[in-house]
Specification:
Blueprint lengths: L1 E3 L2 E5 L3 E2 L17 H6 L1 H15 L10 H9 L6 H13 L7 E3 L1 H7 L6 E4 L2 E5 L6 E6 L4 H5 L6 E5 L2 E2 L5 H8 L6 E8 L2 E8 L1 E4 L3 E8 L2 E8 L6 H14 L4 E5 L5 E3 H11 L4 E7 L2 E7 L10 E5 L6 H11 L4 E4 L7 E7 L5 E10 L15 E2 L4 H9 L10 H24 L9
Parallel strand pairs: 1-21, 14-15, 15-19, 19-20, 20-23
Antiparallel strand pairs: 1-2, 2-16, 3-6, 4-22, 5-12, 6-7, 8-9, 8-10, 10-11, 13-14, 17-18, 17-22, 21-22
Helix pairs in contact: 2-3, 2-4, 8-9, 9-10
Length: 437
């Protein structure tokens, strides 16, 4: 989750490779000029220290004496900004938080991507696992080179073009994986005990966050909505989809958040309000306590039964939406446990064009659940076998159809809820006696 000029961005990843769901960055420049920082790199070190001191979510700074850290690093001499960059990274490593990180000007520029943009890459969301420090795929973006090749959520990237990723920073991995459209990159993947090679051709990727259709089921017409990411236009596309499906008089909905890595916070809140008339959606907690709580506003577009599909690639903003719907008993979750990313980052530009991401808070579901590292457990668990995953990757037209086992299960669950709602409606009907003439 990243705070930007446009609002708060949520995402599962430290860095996005080919999507901007979590990397929209607003620049908050320091008061000093770039020339000042070039001449006084020590000032950059102190600026970073002060931002951490004021904003970092953990007031103990990972049990580190943060004042002693300042004295140590400001007593050193720096003859170049590169030396200052090394010092800043050393300071931040003491926090043992992969999401609090320094970015060089080039790395920060890579973060400054509009969330509705068209991008060039292979279609992977990448993060450093907080415990193992390994480079882990959050999810491949649908209909991209990575998804078509068969890369899966939770895959571990162990080599990039033959170079080991052992101890590699996420930003360095991004620089290796990105490249010109039409060029190729080789990724060696660890999946369980297997090691797999993928030759991927980089492509220009245009991301449409929402697609929808009507599916026929034993209980009538069902609206299927697939949400790929919470981008700037996702809420409007979701609103259009629900209104169109309502006109077709569907009996219920399946909302597919599988492999959705997150995106803009305001997008997830707006979308939650389309399904909920009342109730809390999300709260954020900083080191002073709860700082914000978002509520539904009685503007739901439908009250028809809803099932939400989730998996290990459903992260951050996806977890906010699914958690709100689950805690308010507005939807039944089907699939597997979500990713577990519940931290809030503030991203700001520094005086010389570099950038800093700082974990400033965590977010909680309406029931107060802290999902970070734990994820959200579905109400109905159904895990796809590796063979089933490969079949769906080989033929994406099967996703969201009865050939998709998790979708098929969602239809079963939804059918029971629709039937139950009909029984409740019939039981609540009052027979009015005829008036004697």
């Amino acid at each position: 989750m990243v705070i930007t000029k446009r609002g708060i961005v949520l995402g599962a990843t430290a860095v996005m490779l080919t999507t901007v769901a979590v990397t929209g960055v607003g620049i908050h420049h320091g008061t000093q000029s770039q020339a000042f920082f070039r001449e006084s790199p020590k000032e950059l070190v102190d600026e970073v220290w002060q931002i951490i001191d004021r904003q970092y979510v953990d007031a103990t700074f990972n049990q580190v004496d943060w004042q002693a850290v300042r004295n140590d690093y400001l007593n050193r001499s720096y003859t170049s900004k590169e030396q200052a960059y090394v010092a800043v990274r050393e300071m931040l490593e003491k926090l043992e938080d992969p999401y609090t990180r320094f970015m060089s000007p080039e790395e920060f520029k890579n973060m400054q991507i509009d969330t509705s943009g068209e991008l060039t890459g292979v279609g992977i969301q990448l993060a450093q696992d907080e415990e193992t420090k390994k480079l882990t795929v959050i999810a491949p973006i649908e209909d991209t080179p990575a998804s078509k090749a068969g890369i899966l959520a939770k895959d571990i990237i162990i080599q990039i073009d033959g170079k080991s990723t052992e101890g590699m920073d996420v930003n360095d991995a991004v620089l290796l994986i990105r490249g010109e459209e039409g060029s190729s990159v080789n990724l060696k993947i660890q999946r369980g005990k297997q090691e797999l090679d993928f030759d991927l051709m980089r492509a220009r990727i245009e991301i449409h966050p929402v697609r929808y259709n009507v599916q026929n089921s034993p209980t009538g017409k069902v609206g299927y909505i697939r949400l790929n990411q919470f981008s700037a236009n996702a809420a409007q596309e979701m609103r259009d989809a629900i209104k169109a499906l309502e006109k077709q008089q569907v009996n219920g909905y399946v909302l597919d958040l599988r492999s959705n890595p997150g995106g803009l916070l305001y997008s997830s809140i707006e979308i939650a309000r389309m399904w909920m008339d009342e109730g809390a959606i999300v709260s954020t907690v900083d080191r002073q306590g709860e700082s914000d709580r978002q509520q539904a506003n009685n503007r739901a577009l439908t009250d028809k039964p809803l099932v939400v599909l989730v998996d290990g690639g459903s992260a951050s903003a996806s977890e906010i939406l699914s958690g709100a719907l689950q805690d308010n008993k507005r939807a039944t979750l089907v699939g597997t446990k979500t990713f577990g990313k519940g931290l809030v980052q503030s991203v700001r530009g520094l005086g010389d064009g570099s950038g800093l991401a700082v974990t400033i808070a965590k977010y909680l579901t309406p029931d107060g659940t802290d999902i970070n590292k734990l994820g959200i457990a579905p109400d109905v668990t159904l895990e796809l076998s590796e063979e089933q995953q490969k079949e769906l990757l080989a033929d994406r037209t099967q996703v969201g159809t009865l050939q998709d086992p998790q979708f098929s299960k969602a239809i079963d669950v939804l059918g029971k809820e629709i039937a139950g709602q009909r029984r409740d409606t019939q039981a609540g009907a009052i027979a009015v006696p005829a008036v004697p003439q």
